[in-house]
Write a structure and sequence with these properties.
Strand content: 15-25%
Structural class: alpha/beta
CATH topology of the largest domain: Rossmann fold
Number of domains: 2
Shape: globular
Order of helices and strands: EHEHEEEHEEHEEHEHEEH
Helix content: 25-40%
Number of strands: 12
Largest sheet: 8 strands, mixed
CATH class of the largest domain: Alpha Beta
Strand order of the largest sheet: 5-4-3-2-1-10-11-12
Number of helices: 7
């Protein structure tokens, strides 16, 4: 049985990374990882036999902008889009968010600091410019998804969002774990946001490890201060193979 306490081992672990926190604003185009982190990620991918995947709320098109020199297995749009290790892309249909937007439009029109970001199967209500409206935004989204079936509420950093109910990042990771080169390995999931808590719980229930990057309460067993600290820690698992 795998131990949850041992360090990362690229020969026997499957690594899942949510890099959304690498850009301050999910509504903006992502900034590529620093060259030294890209180089480390390429080394990890090689040493792990390809068992490294990226996860994101962003579409695959934007997710690839984080790592422009690599072509990694990835799940975007909270699992609605998924690219397998073989390069096959699975793109699931999504319920329309127009009805949700109608129910939130009055609140957004009333406050200049709020804005809606529709995606395929996801509607995000941002309140970064009006953090005092957090509770009002959460309540409004709860009310909207009670009226429009097929969505569930997720919390994020300065945002609240409605996601289609049938897929999520956990289901995407579980799907990866049934396929080579991920199957038979121990899952490690690293993320930065509130929405990553379900992923931490899933990885730890599978005898893996949840890794919280940055501040904030979390059920993750391991915590690291920054993305650089994460890659430094992961790099220790390369020592025996270099």
């Amino acid at each position: 049985m795998f131990s949850q306490n041992r360090e990362y081992d690229c020969a026997t672990d499957a690594l899942f990374l949510d890099l959304d926190g690498a850009s301050d604003d999910l509504a903006s185009e992502p900034v590529p990882l620093a060259p030294q982190l890209l180089a480390m990620l390429a080394c990890l991918q090689h040493a792990a036999g390809g068992a490294v995947a990226l996860l994101s709320a962003r579409p695959l098109r934007q997710l690839d902008q984080f790592v422009p020199s690599l072509r990694l297995p990835a799940a975007g749009m909270h699992g609605r889009q998924r690219r397998t290790a073989s390069g096959h892309v699975i793109d699931l249909s999504a319920p329309k968010v127009a009805l949700l937007m109608e129910r939130l439009s009055t609140l957004v029109a009333r406050h200049a600091g709020l804005f809606l970001e529709p995606r395929d199967g996801v509607l995000v209500l941002h309140y970064r410019q009006a953090p005092y409206l957090e509770q009002a935004c959460v309540e409004a989204m709860h009310h909207a998804i009670r009226q429009v079936r097929g969505f569930r509420l997720l919390r994020g950093e300065m945002m609240v969002q409605a996601n289609a109910c049938d897929v999520d990042e956990v289901s995407a990771m579980a799907a990866f774990m049934t396929e080579p080169p991920f199957n038979g390995r121990r899952p490690l999931f690293a993320g930065t946001g509130l929405s990553d808590e379900a992923g931490f719980a899933w990885a730890q229930a599978a005898c893996g490890v949840g890794i919280k990057i940055g501040a904030g309460e979390s059920q993750a067993q391991r915590r690291l201060d920054s993305l650089q600290n994460l890659f430094d820690w992961l790099g220790q698992g390369l020592d025996r193979y270099t």
